[in-house]
Every structure is written in structure tokens, then in C-alpha cells.
Design brief:
Order of helices and strands: HHHEEHHHHHHHHH
Helix content: 55-70%
């Protein structure tokens, strides 16, 4: 029993030291490639054993915040944010509330990317978008697009943004979108409203403005917002 309580106390202490180390990195404004203090220096500064310091540093390594290098010791690294996040993005272990909020993120991102699209859009991009929707069937039951065309069209929009982080985030979220669409989390829209189609969105990209595209995309996603509201009301 004494060993159990000792283990709990040590974990609690490591948690505190981990938080202190992250705060230290912020305070010193360390950048990628900068060395951090040695285990001995950290142990002395924080008043804890080197064993606790070592365990806390291991956590930072697992987070991708630091790595060990020859002759330099532990240094700051550029963390793989999405690699770490991907490990917990399993739709089967996420709560319905979390799934709903992630789905909301998708809607917000796609409405908000208008300025990036108009900044980087090319004629080749327009041609590719038109090719995607060329054989697209009419809207299916409840005015929802067929999944394969939805993914292809919106995936291309993320590519047009030229924002690598945004593209990685979208790929990370795709399994969540697919799971939510196939689940019973959102009820179908019984009285769907008219919406802006993919072809109309392309027309706005060709002749319109970022503001018009934002409004068009908001209208395009309207039925998804209705489903979210219905889920919230339940």
C-alpha cells in the first residue's frame, strides 16, 4: 500500500515538473535547435530528484517538444502536432459531444477559407473542380451530396488554400466526418432547404468575391447546420 501511495505522489510530482518545464521553455523563449538546461541544472532549480526530471523530460520527448543530440544534449524541436493528435482521433473512443464539435470545426474551416482560395486560385484549379463535378449526380435524399464527390470537391478546396497545416488537419478529420455521416448522431433533415451547389460555388470562384464565396459556402452547408441544431436540441 505504501508503494502505491508513493507511485501516486511521484506521478503528481512529475505532472507538476512537466508543467514547470513547459513554462520554462516559454519564459526563456527558446526556439527550435536551442539547448535546454541539463538534468542536474533542472533538478537543482526545481528542487526535485533527477529521476523525476528524467521522467518529465521523457514526456516532453514523447510529445515531440525536445530530442537528444550528440554534444548538445536535449534541444527544442518542431513538434509533429498532427502525429500526436492523430493518436487520439479515433471516432470510436470520442464522445458524441466531441464528435459534434469536430464536425462543427469542419464547417467553420470551409466557410472561413475564402480569402485563401481567391489568393491562390488558378485556371487549372478551376478546370480540376469542374472535372470533379462533371459527372456528379443530383443531390441525394435530404439534399446531401454523395460522399465521394463531397470529399473530392472539398478536398480540392483545401489544396487550393496552399496551407499545408490546413490540408493535414483536413486529412486528419476525414475519418471523423465519415463516421459522423454514417452514424445516427445527426438526424436526417426532413424539410431540407435549397442550397448552393458545387457547380454554383465554382461559378462564384470564377466571377465572384471572397465575401460572396463565404455566403455561398454557408448556404451550401446550411443543411448540415440544421442537423447540428437538431442534435443539440435532442
Amino acid at each position: 500500500m505504501e508503494r502505491i501511495f508513493t507511485a501516486i505522489e511521484n506521478r503528481s510530482l512529475v505532472d507538476k515538473v512537466e508543467a514547470s518545464l513547459i513554462e520554462l521553455l516559454h519564459q526563456r523563449k527558446l526556439k527550435v535547435g536551442d539547448s535546454i538546461p541539463t538534468e542536474l541544472e533542472l533538478s537543482t532549480a526545481l528542487g526535485v530528484s533527477r529521476t523525476v526530471i528524467r521522467e518529465a523530460l521523457m514526456r516532453l520527448r514523447l510529445m515531440g517538444l525536445i530530442e537528444s543530440r550528440k554534444k548538445k544534449g536535449a534541444v527544442i524541436t518542431n513538434p509533429d502536432i498532427f502525429g500526436t493528435l492523430a493518436k487520439s482521433m479515433n471516432p470510436y473512443i470520442l464522445s458524441n459531444d466531441t464528435l459534434k464539435e469536430i464536425f462543427e470545426i469542419r464547417l467553420v474551416l470551409e466557410i472561413g477559407m475564402a480569402d485563401l482560395l481567391f489568393r491562390y486560385l488558378t485556371e487549372d484549379d478551376i478546370k480540376e473542380l469542374k472535372q470533379i463535378v462533371k459527372n456528379e449526380p443530383a443531390a441525394t435524399r435530404n439534399h446531401m451530396f454523395e460522399a465521394s464527390y463531397e470529399i473530392a470537391f472539398h478536398g480540392k478546396l483545401y489544396q487550393i488554400s496552399r496551407n499545408e497545416t490546413l490540408m493535414k488537419f483536413q486529412k486528419l478529420l476525414l475519418p471523423i466526418f465519415d463516421y459522423v455521416e454514417k452514424s445516427s448522431l445527426f438526424a436526417p433533415v426532413l424539410n431540407p432547404k435549397k442550397f448552393v451547389s458545387h457547380k454554383q460555388l465554382i461559378s462564384i470562384l470564377e466571377k465572384g468575391t471572397p465575401e460572396e464565396f463565404r455566403n455561398g459556402m454557408r448556404n451550401h452547408l446550411e443543411n448540415h447546420f440544421i442537423r447540428l441544431n437538431l442534435a443539440t436540441a435532442r
